[in-house]
UniProtKB/TrEMBL annotation:
This is MFS transporter. It comes from the Bacteria. Keywords: Antibiotic resistance, Cell membrane, Membrane, Transmembrane, Transmembrane helix, Transport. It is found in: Cell membrane. Pfam families: MFS_1 (PF07690). Its main location: membrane. The keyword Cell membrane applies. One of its GO terms (molecular function) is transmembrane transporter activity. Residues 17-491 form the Major facilitator superfamily (MFS) profile domain. The chain crosses the membrane at residues 16-35, 55-71, 83-101, 113-133, 145-164, 170-192, 204-222, 234-253, 274-301, 307-328, 335-353, 365-388, 400-424, 465-487. It is a multi-pass membrane protein. GO terms for cellular component: plasma membrane.
Amino acid sequence: MSAREAPPGGSAHKSLALTLIAVAQMMVVLDVSIVNVALPSIQQALDFSATNLEWVVNAYALAFGGLLLLGGRIADKFGQRKAFIGGIGLLTAASLFGGLANSQELLLAARALQGVAAALVAPAALALLTSTFAPGAERNKAMGVYGAVAGLGGALGNVLGGVFTDALSWRWVLFVNVPIGLLVLLAAPTAFRESTPSRGRLDLPGAISVTGGTSLLVYGLMNAASHDWSDTATVLPIVGGAALLVVFLIIEARTSSPLMPLRIWASPARSGSYVIMLTIGAALMALFYFLTLFIQIVLGFSPMRTGFAFLAFAVGAAVTATLSSALIARTGPRALLAVGTLVFAAGLFWLSALGSDSSYAADLLGPLVLGGAGTGLCFVPLALAAVAGVRDEEAGVASALLNAGQQVGAALGLAVLGTIAANATEERMKELMPGSGGGDAHGATGGAMPPQVQEAVHDALSHGYGVGFLVAGCVLVAAFLIALFTIRVSAEDAARTDVAAVV
C-alpha cells in the first residue's frame, strides 16, 4: 500500500483512528456471520427455497472474495481514505436497502452490494492501520487489537444475529450497520489523512472475469441440487464459469498490473496455504450453515439460543489461536496446520452422526469446541506461510489472496456441500415416505405437520446434514495431506516474519 504520513494529534488522534478501523473491520466480519442464525426466519418471511437460501450467504461471500484484490488496488490508486469512506458509505446504504427488502431479489442484491463494500473497506482499513502506526511495538499493538476484533466478530455475529432476530426482527441483522456506519462516516474525514495515490492501472477485466467465473461456477453447482448433473441448467453455468476462470488466468499472465501476479503461486508453501484456506473456508461455512438450520429446525432452539450455542466454537478458537501464536516460532507452521486440520476434521466426523434424537450437550458441544480449536490452530500458520519469502511489494497481495481464498472457499463449499446434503435429504425422504417424491424438506418445516411427517422431515434433514459434514471432514483430511507435503516454512522463518504482514 502507498505510504503516507501518520495523522497529527498524538495518541488521542491515533486512538480515534484505531477505533474507527476496528469498528469497520467488525462490520465487515459481522456481515459474514450475523445472517446465519436469521436464515430460517428469512426463509419463512421471503419464501426462499432451500437452494436459493444459500445465496443469502453466497452473494456476500462471492462479491467480497472476488473483488477483494481489486479493492486493494482501488485504495492504492485513488487513496486509502477515499476507499475507506466510500466503502463504509456503500455498506451503510446496502444494509439499509437490505433491511427494507420485501423480496428475495432485493435482499440478494443488497447482500451482494454489502460484499462489494466489504471488498473496499477491508484492504483500505488495514492499509490505514499500517501507515498510521509506526513499525514495531506501536504497530504490533494496533495489529493485536485489529486481529482480536476480526476473531471476535465471527462469534459475536452469531450471538447478535440471534438476539436481533428474537427480540426485534431478522431485518435488524442488516439495519444494525446503519447507525454504526453513519458514526464512522462522520468521524473518518478528521481521523485520517489521505494517502498518495499510485499510478498503477486497475485490472478491471481480471476482476470481472474472476468474480463472474466463480459466481457462475457456484450457480451451476447449486443448481445440481434441483436438476440432474447432465441438465443444461447445471452444465452450462459450470462450463461457462470454468471458461471465465481460464480467461482470468490468461489476463493475469499478460497484463502489466495484474490483480494476482501468477509468480505468487510459484512457492509450494504459498500455493498450499491458499488451497488449505479454501478448504477451511468451505468447512467453516458448512459447519455454521448446516448447524444453524439443524439447531433451529430439528432441535427447536430459538434464534437467540442458537446464537449463544455457537459460543463453544468461539471459546475453542480463542484458546488455540493464542497457543498457536506462542508455539509457531518453535514448531513452525506445518505441525500446527497438521494438528489443526485433523482436530477440525474430527469435529466434523463427529457431527456426521447427527440424528433427529440428538441433543446439544451430547452431540454438538464437543464438535463445536473441536471445530473452533482446529480453526484457531490454523489461521496464524496459514497467514505466515502465505507471506513467507514473498517480495515486500507483494506481501499485501499474498495476504489478500489468503483472505479471498477463505471467502471463495465458503461460497464454493456451501454450493457443493449444500447440493450433497440436499440430495442426501431427498433420498432419505423417499425412503421414509415413498409417496412424497422427496420434496423440499426445508420447505416442509414452515407450517404445522402431522407428527409422523415431522419425524420423517427431521430424520431426513439430520441425515442430509450428516452426509454434508462427512464430506467436509474428508476435505479437511485432504488439507492435512496438503499441509504435510507443501508447507516447508521453518520455525526460524516464521519467527522472523513481520506480524503486520499476516493479519
